[in-house]
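Journal club prep — side note

Before the paper discussion, L.F. wants everyone to see what a predicted structure for a comparable chain looks like in token form. Sequence:
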Amino acid sequence: MVLDEVKVTRAIAESYLESFLSVTDVDVALVGAGPANLVAAKRLAEADVKTVLFEKRLSVGGGLWGGGMMFPMIVVQQEACRILDECRIWYHEHGEGYFIADAIETVAKLTAGAIDAGAKIINLVTAEDVMIREEDRVVGLVINWTAAEMAGVHVDPLCVRAKFVIDGTGHEAAICRIVQKKVPGAIIGAEGIKGEKSMWAEVGERTVVEFTQEVHPGLVVAGMAAATVFGGPRMGPIFGGMLLSGEKAARLVLENLGI
């Protein structure tokens, strides 16, 4: 076979546009491809819910890649090990109740699990705003290339319609902050976004799951974004709560969709 560079270009551009156009009207749009949203996307897609996950960076996985202080290992509590088992992520017990997994393997297999279930993942795209309609409900995202944001150039965005949006943007809680700004008096975290507290792993792992909820009509918050909204503590390289938070976020959306 003789490779033609123009044909390569057309193959990439046409295939990407076809893939992108297929997710401009979805059931659920997730923002931030960290561990919570990777699990949520997998659960949603497994239920035959049309799902797209946007990540502003080149790589997915959020804070998982670096493990603890760039030692690419993470701790997962026993109650979340079933998710590792499901994704065939190898782990071992290091002391009673402390299960160690390879951070890179975890990212790779959570991502593969979401894709294999049918979720679409699009990187290098930033959600810069939300679409809001009747009764101040969030009904979609306003998106743009991350490169345009980084370059500081004005490029008008495009939109994706969704029945639900899940904010899994980590410490930023970016989508929740947008909604709080755009909807005066929006009840997010009762008194507005509180910001995360100092590290307390035991409390943080529990409350990140408790705080995972619908914080505004059409908007669910998950993972570290939930801790930021409700003032929960950070927990460091311990990811069981993140995985369980994503699972809960998907369950809440499925219940609201009547599935």
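L.F.'s comment for the group: The two ends are 48 Å apart (CA to CA). Keep this in mind when we get to the figures.
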